[in-house]
């Protein structure tokens, strides 16, 4: 078994997030989920998770991080660890469905796109390990979620996906991950249509970045021009996965725009901006995941690959340097990571999303070791 310092950092992030947030769904055996905060609120009841705040899409990204750890274990020759992560992923996927009312369907199409992506990657981890039995649950998740995404892709506003079942908002948060998911399934024509719609309706020529979406208000289209890092990430991932010349040109330009407009200077390096806590606590981690994919793509031009690599490694280094120990009874103290590069971890209670973001960033950096 051979590891690098970047592998060790990712392993520490995994250990820390697991120690602080992971557990069963109430007292139910053979379940696995991530709590929203650490420590759990005072007076929490055993089945409080069934009635409390529910973040379906945070759990999807937790599943993605578990898969990252499993793939890292394969790279470092720790096959028993990879098997353990595959089983953990299976349990987590089953528990997400259980906590979601024993169904895959959610009211938000972007939520379902995230879980479709993570489920597909869990299947790929099983493939790497040669584990073909007991895959029915993963196939069910991918099939049901993909059907939902297709149903949200309509001709309203010229294309793209609706964000929710209200059908009043076509946006990048749903369209980007859906395009990436379909590209991974080999459905390149539909993935290209989605990406082309984003570039026709939501790409800013001035900034080179992807905007948020278009709301429908009494028959009028209203552009929502917010810029969020994760929208750049999913579109970048779709472009790199499609891999045709036009997509790769767009990908290189998008990496350059991210470097120019979504970074801050820290200790002589350009690191990616973050978006605070709550849902925003995951946004930059998602971007970093797909910057690492771009940095590893040999078809992308060298300048873009080098820029993507630099952004991933420098952002990961800044988050690593800002970590602090959190005392936990009976265990080696886990680490808490800052919400933003150059900052310090927030005071307790700690929120899952920025800690999961740090883990995602450190796993992405480890792929570039």
Helix-strand blueprint:
Elements: H1 5-21, E1 22-23, E2 33-34, E3 37-38, H2 56-75, H3 79-99, H4 109-129, H5 136-152, E4 169-171, H6 172-184, H7 188-201, E5 213-217, E6 220-224, H8 229-242, H9 245-261, E7 263-266, E8 269-272, H10 283-295, H11 302-321, E9 324-325, E10 335-336, E11 350-351, H12 352-366
Antiparallel strand pairs: 1-2, 3-11, 4-5, 5-6, 7-8, 9-10
Helix pairs in contact: 1-2, 1-12, 2-3, 2-4, 2-12, 3-4, 4-5, 4-6, 6-7, 6-8, 7-8, 8-9, 8-10, 9-11, 10-11, 10-12, 11-12
Strand share of the residues? 5-15%
Oligomer: single chain
Shape: globular
Low-confidence stretches: none
Roughly what is the average pLDDT, rounded to an integer?
94
State the end-to-end distance.
Answer: 15 Å
Strand arrangement in the largest pleated sheet: 4-5-6
- Radius of gyration, in Å, reads 20 Å
Q: Compute the number of helices.
A: 12
Question: Structural class of the secondary elements?
Answer: mainly alpha
- Largest sheet descriptor: 3 strands, antiparallel
Order of helices and strands: HEEEHHHHEHHEEHHEEHHEEEH
Helical fraction: 40-55%
How many strands?
11
Care to describe what's here?
With about 375 residues, the protein is mainly α. It is built from 12 helices and 11 strands. The protein has helices spanning about 5-20, 55-75, 80-100, 110-130, 135-150, 170-185, 190-200, 230-240, 245-260, 285-295, 300-320, 350-365, and strands spanning about 20-25, 35, 35-40, 170, 215, 220-225, 265, 270, 325, 335, 350. The strands form 5 sheets. A 3-stranded antiparallel sheet has the order 4-5-6. Strands 1-2 form a two-stranded antiparallel ribbon. Strands 3-11 form a two-stranded antiparallel sheet. A hairpin with a 2-residue loop joins β5 and β6 (about 220-225). The longest helix is centred in the N-terminal third of the chain and has 21 residues, at about 80-100. About 50% of the residues are buried.
């Amino acid at each position: 078994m051979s590891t690098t310092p970047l592998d060790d950092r990712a392993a520490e992030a995994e250990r820390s997030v697991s120690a602080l947030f992971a557990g069963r769904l109430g007292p139910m055996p053979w379940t696995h989920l991530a709590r929203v905060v650490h420590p759990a609120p005072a007076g929490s009841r055993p089945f409080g998770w069934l009635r409390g705040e529910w973040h379906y899409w945070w759990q999807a990204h937790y599943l993605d991080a578990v898969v990252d750890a499993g793939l890292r274990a394969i790279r470092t020759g720790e096959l028993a660890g990879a098997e353990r992560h595959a089983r953990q992923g299976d349990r987590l996927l089953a528990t997400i469905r259980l906590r979601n009312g024993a169904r895959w369907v959610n009211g938000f199409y972007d939520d379902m796109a995230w879980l479709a992506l993570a489920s597909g990657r869990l299947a790929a981890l099983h493939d790497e390990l040669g584990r073909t039995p007991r895959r029915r649950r993963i196939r069910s998740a991918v099939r049901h979620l993909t059907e939902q995404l297709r149903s949200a892709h309509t001709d309203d506003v010229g294309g793209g996906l609706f964000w929710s079942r209200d059908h009043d908002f076509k946006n990048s948060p749903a369209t980007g991950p859906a395009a990436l998911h379909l590209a991974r399934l080999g459905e390149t024509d539909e993935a290209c249509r989605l990406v082309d719609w984003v570039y026709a309706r939501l790409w800013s020529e001035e900034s080179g970045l992807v905007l948020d979406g278009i709301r429908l208000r009494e028959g009028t289209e209203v552009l929502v021009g917010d810029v969020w890092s994760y929208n750049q990430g999913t579109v970048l991932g779709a472009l790199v996965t499609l891999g045709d010349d036009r997509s790769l040109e767009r990908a290189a330009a998008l990496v350059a725009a991210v470097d120019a407009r979504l970074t801050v200077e820290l200790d002589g390096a350009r690191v990616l901006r973050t978006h605070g806590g709550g849902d925003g606590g995951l946004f930059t981690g998602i971007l970093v995941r797909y910057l690492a994919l771009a940095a590893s793509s040999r078809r992308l031009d060298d300048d873009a690959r080098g820029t993507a690599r630099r952004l991933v490694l420098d952002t990961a280094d800044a988050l690593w340097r800002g970590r602090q120990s959190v005392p936990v009874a009976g265990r080696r103290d886990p680490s808490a990571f800052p919400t933003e590069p150059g900052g310090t971890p927030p005071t307790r209670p700690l929120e899952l999303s920025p800690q999961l973001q740090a883990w995602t960033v450190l796993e992405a950096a480890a792929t570039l070791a």
